[in-house]
Design a protein that fits this description.
The complex is a heterotrimer of chains A (about 90), B (about 475) and C (about 475). Helix content of chain A is about 35%, strand content about 10%. Chain A contains three helices and three strands, in the order H-H-E-H-E-E. A two-stranded antiparallel ribbon of chain A has the order 2-3. The relative contact order of chain A is 0.08. The mean pLDDT of chain A is about 95. With about 475 residues, chain B is an alpha+beta fold. In chain B, about 40% of the residues lie in helices and about 20% in strands. In chain B, strands 1, 3, 7, 8, 9, 12, 13, 14, 15 and 16 form a ten-stranded mixed beta sheet that branches. In chain B, strands 6-5-17 form a three-stranded antiparallel beta sheet, with no helix packed on it. Chain B has a two-stranded antiparallel ribbon with strand order 4-18. In chain B, strand 15 and strand 16 form a beta hairpin. The N and C termini of chain B lie far apart (about 75 Å). By secondary structure, chain C is α/β, with parallel strands linked by helices. In chain C, about 35% of the residues lie in helices and about 15% in strands. Chain C has 15 helices and eleven strands. In chain C, strands 1-3-2-4-6-5-10-11-9-7-8 form an eleven-stranded mixed beta sheet, sandwiched between helices. Chains in contact: A-B, A-C, B-C. At the B-C interface, loops of B face helix 9 and helix 10 of C. The complex binds magnesium ion (MG) and zinc ion. Zinc ion binds next to loops of chain B.
Chain lengths: ~90, ~475, ~475
């Protein structure tokens, strides 16, 4: 499959990765190689085969509706790069 | 010109299921806590955290499904909806994509006397995101602040068919949905607290056209008023665009409360591609018939059953019945009152009239108002006993509503009791008649107006508290003796 | 013999007989690390003070638990309360969790002493530990070679006698391949038998925590401690009654062993093949019945694996956006750039590549052709195993096609690096238990044999491995690091 810089940029935005021009060039090559590699899957006829999401056959795993004391806010925010008044602080969204 | 167009509306309503804890962790869902005090590594999306499903949330979802006449899925699963946003801690929302827990369904609404069935496409479980707080407006602020208390609160998203064709129908639908969910006891549906939020999909087309027009989605409307206004505004905007030959872009718009307009929300934002796929961390659900049966048996009386009961058993009108079943509290208030006071219509009138008026002006709900069933029914009895006039009763009721005081005490303290004691009245009458010999003559000449004069005088003397019936009787007796 | 050379079992008996104290063991281990780790470079963090303080208070007595006073190490993708957990990524270089992964609390509850956090390929994406954002770990048998990966630090540390045992995680071979390259025991249990809670995920439907040890006995001992249902992991299964040690006996008469012809394919080192054949003969001598079996879809497993693993990884790593924790770029004036710059700075090339690939295969226009297709192929791979396991008890193959390669040798060749996992990946695709144990040497480099079992037949995998081990001494060989 032939990927364009545009393809790379669209997916990079979806994945929130700010790539350098250099990186885009390398990725076109490496992703190309990867896609050619996995295209082997197309040789298989999988018509009507149920996808296997998980090898476990378990269902209905629940917890009961009981409150567990949340950790303190200080603890929760202790790894945050930027906070203010008990909030996580981020640059404007628009 | 406008009349050549019709509007097509579909609603996506998000309701918070009223579990004690979040859908995938044990954090509390209580409303109004300090920011980020009800979070844990799981709902804050820390490394290695895994979701474990709250069984109660599933039960509520099934209950809600039954309340909106849905098919409950025998098999359903959870999927990841992937997108980056600062209030979405994992950068994916756990939701249900192709296999929702509730499939199909409908609600019957009534708009100016016309019944209409609105189809429901599906209802699915998902987790709520956190909340963003801004300094100033969302566009002007240099920073946003993230509160994850709401992150992971269980939601049911109920998607209607595009079968709603006016703002009035839209609000009727949401009102109906709200009342059945309230009766089912699965959500508080408090719009002001965001536990019921509404997205409106809206498009217009020339009448007779069968193709749908390009639609806009108006997000997060959280009051009946804003739903109504937003739809009216957006309909007008789209029709005018059509008339001016402008093309309508499919987009998400937001309702500006103070400007009362909808505006485009498109920012530096790519075309949505949520890359849904099954969440490998959550085993799927198998919902047995027994489980659904058990929940169906637990279902309380629903609004429509209650309405029928009010009409058949208590002889109320369809309209009265529908108003009394808007919330379970109204119905309960009526049902308890009728135990203590037999006249259903009178109770209904007071609830729908005075009580609702006071509830709305103070915008509170029956439960947290001071009024009691005892209070209302006692007041009605006092009216019947002639201890207070209907006109004064309204004042007393408002006082009861504000102070929570019993009617008897209010009447005593305010000296509002009606004077029916004949001895007291006779003394008054003797005096008035004595001081007005001229009018007595007129009366004897058969001038009937004279009687009215005397009644007026008595009322004046008693500041209107004299019981008119008795005053009339006594006057007639007295004058005939003159 | 030095204390650091001993197995868990040997240390345990010395402790019980009051011959030594926990502190002596911990000191011996810490000294060993000081001497050899500048060569091996297995540790990202050494928790020296914590370990010493903990060991001081551990007295052997009647209340002694399974691991009381026994040192261990953890792959650095396992969250440790108060101890930095980096996943060998700049993104989490300064991340210190306030919680212990379930496996960590279970080791603690049994009295284990944490010595440190071990190097890995960044977010487990790699097969050589060269993808660590900090430094490459070296193979104790030849410092110019890789230890394998992604759990290379754990494997190297145990092989170099820096630890009696360590935990790792295995998504496509990340425990078995490094164990093979380093000549030790590496066990990936059945998917669902060990809690994943608190372990940074790579691919949630494939990941499984596992064990590196010096012999199978120790492996079973640690399994008894960490395996079993965890209420915090919906995909963990209730096995609490299982006693893995009880499976350890050498009587394998009549046991049926299959070897899949597809696994002995072109590109495999002939000497590796020969060593496996030799091992199979040994099993026949011990009374097992060996037969060739076929796993026809094996040749598609690796491709399907890379689609599924990358897809899941792309969303598992999406939470690393610089809001609640982790690296943040402070230049950006809007949140989209903040996300994109933070992630670009925090992630290495391999992580970027797989994140991009995973995002591609889930995006519209690619989903059906790649992701859905891969999930269907996964079903076929799974059914291959089901069929074969109707005829045999276990499957035996080489763990890798070759011995450890030179550092830098495969740096610029994505695919040949991925080929390392071709024999281990199908086991994860089917969620089966798989172990790698030493079965010989080529030019002084260890070779590993992979034993694969039926779902939740972890016991018979350990039994099969134990029987071989008891009749060989490959596992007793130690690398010469020119320091002892
Ligand atoms: Mg939604
Ligand atoms: Zn939580």
């Amino acid at each position: 499959m032939d990927l364009t810089i545009k393809d790379i940029e669209d997916i990079a935005l979806l994945a929130r990765l700010n790539l350098s021009e250099q990186e885009k060039e390398t990725l076109i090559k490496e992703l190309g190689t990867l896609f050619n590699f996995v295209d082997k899957l197309q040789d298989l006829d999988t018509e009507g085969i149920e996808p296997l999401i998980n090898t476990l056959s378990v269902y209905n795993v629940f917890r009961s509706d009981e409150v567990r004391q949340s950790p303190s806010r200080e603890e929760m925010l202790s790894n945050a790069p930027l906070t203010e008044d008990g909030y996580y602080k981020v640059p404007k969204i628009m | 010109m406008y009349s050549e167009y019709e509007v097509v509306i579909g609603l996506e309503v998000h309701v918070e299921l009223k579990t004690k804890t979040k859908i995938f962790c044990g954090c509390s869902t209580d409303f109004g806590a300090e920011p980020n005090t009800q979070t844990c590594p799981s709902c804050a999306g820390f490394p290695g955290m895994l979701p474990v499903l709250n069984e109660k949330a599933v039960e509520y979802a099934i209950k809600a499904g039954l309340a909106i006449n849905s098919q409950i899925a025998e098999y359903c699963k959870f999927d990841r909806k992937n997108y980056f946003y600062p209030d979405l801690s994992k950068a994916y929302q756990i939701s249900q994509f192709d296999l929702p827990i509730c499939q199909g369904g409908y609600l019957d609404i009534e708009v100016d006397g016309k019944r209409k069935r609105i189809g429901i496409t599906r209802a699915h479980m998902e987790e709520d995101a956190g909340k963003l707080v801004h300094q100033g407006t969302i566009t002007s602020t240099p920073f946003s602040f993230v509160d994850l208390n709401r992150s992971g609160v269980p939601l049911l998203e109920i998607v209607s068919e595009p079968e709603i064709s006016s703002a009035a129908e839209a609000t009727a639908y949401v009102e109906k949905l709200r009342s059945v969910l309230l009766f089912a006891g699965v959500s508080d549906c408090k719009m002001q607290e965001g536990s019921l939020r509404c997205d409106v999909n809206i498009s217009v087309r020339p009448k007779g056209e069968t193709e749908l027009g390009t639609r806009a989605e108006i997000k997060n409307l959280n009051s009946f008023r804003s739903i109504e206004r937003a739809i009216e505004y957006e309909t007008k905007r789209q029709i005018e665009a059509n008339l001016d030959g402008e093309e309508i872009v499919q987009e998400t718009r937001t309702w500006d409360e103070e400007k009362q307009v909808t505006r485009s929300m498109r920012s530096k934002e790519e075309a949505d591609d949520y890359r849904y796929f099954p969440d490998p961390d959550l085993p799927p659900l198998r919902i047995s018939e027994d489980w659904v049966k058990r929940i169906r048996e637990e279902m309380p009386e629903m609004p429509e059953q209650a309405q029928k009961r009010l009409v058949d058993k208590h002889g109320l009108s369809e309209y009265d019945a529908s108003v009394l079943t808007l919330t379970p509290q109204h119905l309960a208030f009526f049902d308890e009152s009728i135990e203590l006071y037999s006249d259903a219509k009178t109770i209904a009138n007071w609830i729908m009239g005075e009580l609702n008026r006071l509830l709305n002006t103070n915008n509170i709900e029956i439960d947290n108002s001071k009024i009691s069933v005892q209070g209302l029914t006692n007041l009605l009895k006092l009216i019947d006993q002639g201890q207070i006039s209907g006109k004064m009763a309204k004042e007393v009721f408002e006082e009861m509503f504000n102070s929570g005081q019993s009617p008897e005490i209010i009447i005593k303290e305010k000296g509002m009791a009606q004077i029916s004691d004949e001895a007291t009245l006779i003394k008054l009458i003797d005096e008035i008649v004595l001081n007005n010999p001229k009018v007595v003559e007129d009366y004897k000449q058969g001038k009937k107006k004279a009687l009215g004069f005397f009644v007026g005088q008595v009322m004046k003397a008693t500041k209107g508290q004299a019981n008119p019936a008795i005053v009339n009787k006594l006057l007639k007796e007295h004058l005939s003796r003159e | 013999m030095q204390l650091y050379e001993l197995t868990l079992k040997q240390l345990k008996s010395k402790l019980i007989n009051q011959e030594i104290s926990s502190s002596e063991i911990v000191d011996s281990i810490l000294d060993r690390i000081k001497v050899v780790d500048e060569k091996v470079k297995a540790f990202i963090t050494v928790t020296e003070d914590m370990a010493k303080n903990l060991a001081k208070d551990l007295k052997q007595n009647s209340e002694s638990k399974v691991l009381t006073g026994i040192p261990y190490g953890l792959k650095d993708d396992m969250c440790t309360n108060g101890v930095r957990t980096t996943c060998a990524s700049k993104m989490l270089e300064n991340f210190t969790p306030n919680y212990d992964a379930t496996v960590v609390s279970r080791l603690k509850d049994q009295g284990g002493v944490l010595i440190g956090k071990l190097n890995m390929d960044e977010f487990s994406m790699g097969s050589s530990t060269e993808q660590s954002a900090f430094f490459a770990t070296r193979n104790p048998w030849d410092l110019s070679r890789v230890p394998g990966g992604s759990s290379g630090g754990s494997a190297a540390a145990v092989a170099a006698d820096e630890l009696p045992f360590a935990l790792g995680s295995d998504t496509g071979g990340s425990i078995r391949q490094p164990a093979s390259f380093c000549g030790i025991v590496g066990f990936k249990p059945t998917y669902g038998s060990i809690s994943r809670w608190g372990v940074m995920p790579f691919a949630s439907s494939l990941d499984q925590v596992g064990i590196f040890s010096k012999d199978v006995q120790d492996c079973a001992t640690v399994m008894n401690v960490i395996a079993g249902k965890d209420q915090l992991d919906s995909t963990s299964v209730d096995l609490d009654s299982t006693d893995y040690i009880s499976y350890l006996d050498t009587n394998i008469k009549g046991m049926k062993i299959g070897f899949p012809k597809e696994y002995f394919q072109k590109g495999m080192n002939e000497e590796v093949k020969a060593l496996i054949m030799k091992a199979l003969n040994k099993y026949e001598e011990m009374g097992a019945i060996v037969q060739e079996v076929s796993l026809p879809h094996s040749e598609y497993a690796l491709q399907a694996y890379h689609v599924i693993a990358s897809a899941e990884a792309s969303t598992n790593l999406a939470r690393l956006d610089g809001v609640e924790y982790g690296l943040r770029d402070f230049q950006a004036d809007n949140v989209v750039d903040m996300f994109s710059n933070s992630r670009a700075k925090g992630f290495g090339d391999e992580v970027k590549l797989r994140t991009m690939f995973g995002t591609f295969v889930l995006s519209s226009g690619y989903y059906e052709r790649y992701y859905l297709k891969a999930m269907q192929v996964r079903r076929l791979v799974n059914e291959d195993f089901n069929k074969v396991f109707q005829d045999v008890d276990v499957i035996i193959s080489p763990t890798t096609m070759n011995t450890a390669f030179k550092i830098g040798q495969k740096a610029d060749d994505v695919l040949s690096l991925y080929m390392n996992d071709v024999l281990t990946v199908p086991v994860n695709m089917a969620g089966l238990p798989g172990i790698s144990i030493p079965c010989g040497f080529i030019d002084g480099l260890p070779v590993g044999m992979q034993i694969i079992g039926k779902p939740f037949a972890d016991g018979s995998v350990l039994k099969t491995a134990f029987a071989f081990e008891q009749n060989t001494d490959y596992h007793k060989q130690k690398p010469v690091l020119g320091v002892n």
